[in-house]
Specification:
The protein is of the alpha+beta class and 148 residues long. It contains two helices and nine strands.
Length: 148
Amino acid sequence: MLRPTLLLAFFLTALLCAAAPEKRTLYVQVILGCDKDKPSNPAHKEVGPKLAAKLSPVFRWKHYWETERRKIEFDPAKVTKVELANQRTLEIERLKTGEFEVRLLRKNGLVTKTRQPGKGGMAILGGEESSKDSFFVVIRADEPVNRE
């Protein structure tokens, strides 16, 4: 009698572990869009061609510079919070619908949010804009490359 109970417990545990969403590695980039040919900070790198191809047709800037990059472990069972420079916070949450909600906050509250399909490859959030430049936050599954 003990053997079938142990066998059932083993299969239930295996089933629950298989059904639980797995942690994923994500990359978060903070991007400055501007018309300057060179970044104001020499540590900033020009974004790679894949990201530039996504940003250029939508936004008016000539150049996009990566000001910050983070590699994070996203646990779909929890809200993942990422503290960024300049009092920015990013929150990523898997919803019951299977979608992901991504929220960008500043010290005084929500800047913007978006929902992405569960299999989405890239999310781009913006909302901080002046006449001289704009900041974007990019969340992606593939590791970014920069132009050299």
